[in-house]
Amino acid sequence: MTEADWARINRIQTAYSQSTVHNQVTGVPPYPAIQHIESPLELVQLPTYLSSIRLITYLKNIPEFELLDSADRLTLVKHNLLAVVFVHIVLIYDPTSDTYHEKHTNDPVFQGRDWIRILGQPFYDKITATIKSLINIIKCNRVIAKFLLVIILYSKLFCGYDILHEQSLNNPTFVFNTQNLYLETLYKYCLHHYGYVRTIKLFAQLTSRLFSIQNLSIQFKGFVHEYIDASQLTPLMQAVLQINDEPP
After folding, report:
1. FRET label pair with 160: which of 26, 60, 80, 81, CA 20 to 30 Å apart?
2. pLDDT one-digit tens code per residue, 110-122
3. Which is nearest to 103 in space by CA: 178, 45, 31?
4. Are 43 and 89 in contact (CB under 8 A)?
5. Distances, alpha carbon 232 to alpha carbons 14, 79, 197, 198, in Å
6. For residue 47, is the peptide bond before it cis, meaning its omega torsion is within 30 degrees of 0?
7. Cα(115)–Cα(103) distance, rounded to whole angstroms?
8. What is the pTM (predicted TM-score) of this model?
């Protein structure tokens, strides 16, 4: 690990903290109150929207994001942010109580049983199995999860949803190099903490689970296309969920 590596880790920690400070939920009771989710629309308008806004703020606070070509920024956010939202669940999910809450915020608590009622037990089981597996792999190391948020965003064609119509990048080399920069820093960080053998195993396990995240994103987009009217959503969520596009 170099001084530049540690500085990069400090930057993502600070960027994540700022993203929660500057985006507080309004119109709902504060923590530790429970906010019930009654419909697919509320699931998108409350926890999914809040997570999306915070993640965009997080990414904007990382220097390389602002250096991206503006069209490339839009392409990556539109096609990859939903997968980033699913990885973000690792940072807010409590497997013991089956609840969701962003630490150090006044957000209400969201309950898994509401998600079950809306998404159905089989789909929810897939979500929680993947998230619990990721939590177990990283052993609650939040630094790893925050790096994954960045790495996934910079993965061209990761969404797996409508690859044929995904726009080409104007500067793919910059995107590729940025992803490599964060991958290398994460790898060195894991080597520093866990050693070579465990790091190799950890990366292999993470790669497998990220394919599961990709699949969950595809299923969730299909669910939204079927049950939500696009006119009821903000432009941001329409873009992220590609709800005005033809379903796959």
Report:
1. 60
2. 999 999 999 999 9
3. 31
4. no
5. 34, 20, 49, 47
6. no
7. 20
8. 0.92
